[in-house]
Automatic annotation (TrEMBL):
Membership in a protein family: Belongs to the phD/YefM antitoxin family.
Source organism (scientific name): Agromyces neolithicus
Matches recorded under InterPro entries: YefM-like_sf
Matching NCBIfam families: phd_fam
Domain of life where this protein originates: Bacteria
Protein name: Antitoxin
Amino acid sequence: MRSISQRELRNNSAEIMRGLARGESYRVTNRGVPVGVLRAEGRSELDDLMLRPGSQVMQFPRGVRRAQSTGDALDELRRDR
């Protein structure tokens, strides 16, 4: 989440509105002190966390290859029991 000053919000409101339309979020500060958060309508803080770059990187279990179908991967994992 990008921090912006009250002055930046006032002076660059059109650019910030376009950012909101793209789904960006902003923390607004007044003299360096956070006073509020602007985020796209319908988005929550959890949405922001889930959409953060790298948060959706899938870690495959040992021995599972990316090219496998889900069913094949599950069958292979069950055989290891």
